[in-house]
């Protein structure tokens, strides 16, 4: 609820990494690891901002942020084919009005 993100290892109750205020204090609505690239994850906050984290590029801050100011995005999920090397990765965004958008992620964050 405070925008912090914690990365845990299954064998420990303490986080390996913790990013406080990662969404400028906005609650995290959804977080999902990329299906095609293990070091990348996506975070949706309560203000319809999506943050892209690539831990191989920068493990302190997100590498990109996409804002959807006129649309209330209520959840997201990723789709892709992890068994295929094409690196195609899509993001499904569900909006408060009932609409659904599919956005494709840049290859640099999708290719294995």
List strands and helices in order, with pairings.
Elements lengths: L4 E4 L6 E5 L8 E6 L6 E6 L3 E6 L9 E4 L5 E8 L8 E7 L4 E5 L8
Antiparallel strand pairs: 1-2, 3-4, 4-5, 5-6, 7-8, 8-9
GO molecular function: dynein heavy chain binding; dynein light chain binding
Organism: Rostratula benghalensis (greater painted-snipe)
InterPro entries: DYNC2I1, WD40_repeat_dom_sf
3D structure, described in words:
- It is a single chain.
- The protein has 112 residues and is mostly beta strands.
- The protein has one domain.
- It is built from no helices and 9 strands.
- The strands form 3 sheets. It has a 4-stranded antiparallel β-sheet, with no helix packed on it.
The total strand number stands at 9
Number of H/I helices: 0
Question: Any idea how many domains?
Answer: 1
Gap between N and C termini: 31 Å
Please tell me how large the radius of gyration is: 14 Å
Percentage of helical residues? under 10%
Mean pLDDT: 90
Could you describe the largest sheet, including whether it forms a barrel? 4 strands, antiparallel
Strand-residue fraction? over 45%
Poorly predicted runs are none
For the largest sheet, list the strands in their spatial order.
3-4-5-6
Q: Judging from the principal axes of the Cα atoms, what is the shape?
A: globular
Look at the helices and sheets and give the structural class: mainly beta
GO molecular function: dynein heavy chain binding; dynein light chain binding
Organism: Rostratula benghalensis (greater painted-snipe)
InterPro entries: DYNC2I1, WD40_repeat_dom_sf
Protein name: WDR60 protein
